[in-house]
Amino acid sequence: xxxxxxxxxxxxxxxxxxxxxxxxxxxxxxxxxxxxxxxxxxxxxxxxxxxxxxxxxxxxxxxxxxxxxxxxxxxxxxxxxxxxxxxxxxxxxxxxxxxxxxxxxxxxxxxxxxxxxxxxxxxxxxxxxxxxxxxxxxxxxxxxxxxxxxxxxxxxxxxxxxxxxxxxxxxxxxxxxxxxxxxxxxxxxxxxxxxxxxxxxxxxxxxxxxxxxxxxxxxxxxxxxxxxxxxxxxxxxxxxxxxxxxxxxxxxxxxxxxxxxxxxxxxxxxxxxxxxxxxxxxxxxxxxxxxxxxxxxxxxxxxxxxxxxxxxxxxxxxxxxxxxxxxxxxxxxxxxxxxxxxxxxxxxxxxxxxxxxxxxxxxxxxxxxxxxxxxxxxxxxxxxxxxxxxxxxxxxxxxxxxxxxxxxxxxxxxxxxxxxxxxxxxxxxxxxxxxxxxxxxxxxxxxxxxxxxxxxxxxxxxxxxxxxxxxxxxxxxxxxxxxxxxxxxxxxxxxxxxxxxxxxxxxxxxxxxxxxxxxxxxxxxxxxxxxxxxxxxxxxxxxxxxxxxxxxxxxxxxxxxxx
Length: 563
Fold this sequence. Notes:
It is a single chain. With 563 residues, this protein is an all-alpha fold. It is 65% helix and 2% strand. It has a domain at 20-116. The protein contains 21 helices and four strands. A two-stranded antiparallel ribbon has the order 1-2. A two-stranded antiparallel sheet has the order 3-4.
């Protein structure tokens, strides 16, 4: 037994130690709260001003509006370059003193935002200059085919419509010459990005990009491996269908099919092998009203967003579509250029999918957490609803077709969606694996790497003797690095949510043709389990809480692989 005096001294020491730790924790929490308050005071008004300026520029197309937008965005970004602020965040993080879960989550989010901007200014300037110069080369390039300059759209039109193998090859090869223009610059840029990543303590830029967006590189690779295993055989069967169709269309044997025969520069979109015209069902329809009526039917009110949005064509306006949360306070807007066709129906449903996610995030959350859990989780909601336009059940529920037409087109419309999904999933495999390997070793034979992956995952035949930087003709590799995989993750989660709602709320085993029209419980589920938490939960924790399991490719396979 210890003497009482020793026991007493031990207790006093323990008390002092505990009190010391408590004081340290309190000090760090106080410092973090002060930091967040100061950060919010700077960011909140500036972000709102910057986003409004961006919106105005998109609407007007005026140079003055774009200049204002760029200046404000630069001011906003400069906040995160502060080395003093980052040093404080790092000190707090490394202390492991923050016990409050919401406060700790804010620390993690802000730390990653600041970390990604702690770059040597000269190196950052070099990177930006290189990116601008490369983007100019992409913008200015035109394929030279038979002494005629062709835009990307021109090339795509030829690939989709021509039945001449000679013309198809010329257009495809003409476009691929872009690779030789930019490849050396891209490799140099990759090395600069890697240098930046290593300065910040990462093995390479690809790993850094994933980790700063809270994605574990091993976890993402496992998901892609899972999806590869699940889709390989099904895609092989569809690829044979495609090959049969194209060979007959082009009057050649299947063994003569080459990459330029697949109606797309990269075979990232499915060739039109099934005869169905979805545009006719949307001709003369009020796309805005259909979108409003659907979301209202599931208890998601978008009328306020509609009122703040800009949905129709006008001179100078941005020709594309996006959704923006102006202030993290509920001012959510959508930009579209609606036409009465299938494509714009999908786009409206997609963009307002982003919109309802943003709108229904809990506004009582701290400002830094009033965002979707991850980029791909909001893409998942947009994709879940964006698929509806080709869904015959949805079309029936929206009074676009009757029950007999639904039966007539059901199988073919599903085949179109299935073909689109599986074709894209195999293309995304190529993009993800190429970028990962390129940043791991940019000095390897990238031309060979590209075609090895294309052959393995897309099952396309490599042109004999070809040794050109065809990989470099894909603009995303240079200007949107290490992002492409998020599109596929979004598709996986869309199917996982579709499965959960169908099985547990609709209580059906038909996972193919659900529209959820009129099902307010389905809408409430998405609000409570996906939207409200915002970024307060790490993305896979949110998915597990919402569906009972972490993100998996299994339900995507169930929906689009198993016939």
